[in-house]
Specification:
Length: about 210
């Protein structure tokens, strides 16, 4: 007899128990909000549907994207229903401890800054959404120093990345960073996009934690 299929309702409910400050946004996806960020777990059923992999992830509502790309991801161990019963709570605690931005309690801008800078020390080469998000979140605070510091950090982190691989469509790195600064400074468009994504993804039903900056 093969392994049973993943019970999506059970694993979603169990993971919510492990981190009660999260709420189910949809099946397999439990989150809460901190400012413009949606933070939580996605329980990704893989293969033939008999195993799943928990994923810590952050999504940013305040950006030029019309979708919610997942970033700052941390993968947990894969589990079937048997290992879920034995180890899922332990795996959840490990992910809670590793989280770049805390899943529980109040959050400061310093927490967010430190989380992104910790990620930048060992980034997933091939994606720049984390760098964009750090700038967008800094812009969201309307704090000029935060915004300028984030732009400077991202500039220094990415200036040595191969232009032909990462910045061709933007016309080179310098054009990319200037365009990012322009987009992140256009609050009218970003606020409109922010409201649309809240409605589209029904974000308003998520609990919101204090964010101090």
């Amino acid at each position: 007899m093969g392994r049973p299929k993943i019970n999506k309702t059970k694993i979603t409910n169990d993971w919510q128990k492990y981190c009660p400050e999260l709420r189910k946004l949809r099946m397999l996806d439990i989150d809460n909000r901190v400012g413009p960020l949606v933070i939580g777990f996605y329980l990704q059923v893989i293969g033939d549907g008999t195993i799943y992999m928990p994923l810590y992830k952050v999504e940013n509502l305040y950006s030029h994207y019309s979708v919610l790309p997942s970033s700052l991801e941390i993968e947990g161990r894969t589990m079937d229903m048997q290992t879920h019963e034995a180890y899922s709570e332990q795996v959840a605690q490990q992910l809670i401890e590793k989280a770049y931005i805390p899943l529980q309690g109040e959050v400061t801008f310093e927490n967010i800054k430190n989380g992104y800078e910790r990620y930048f020390k060992n980034p997933n080469k091939g994606t720049i959404v984390e760098y964009e998000d750090y700038v967008y979140i800094s812009s969201w605070t309307r704090n000029k120093l935060f915004f300028e510091t984030a732009l400077n950090t991202v500039y220094n982190e990415l200036k040595a990345w191969p232009e032909e691989r990462y910045f061709v469509q933007a016309g080179g790195f310098q054009n990319w960073i200037l365009e990012l600064e322009k987009k992140a400074g256009n609050h009218e468009i970003l606020e409109d996009n922010y409201r649309k994504k809240i409605a589209k993804y029904k974000i308003e039903k998520l609990p919101e934690r204090p964010f101090y900056f």
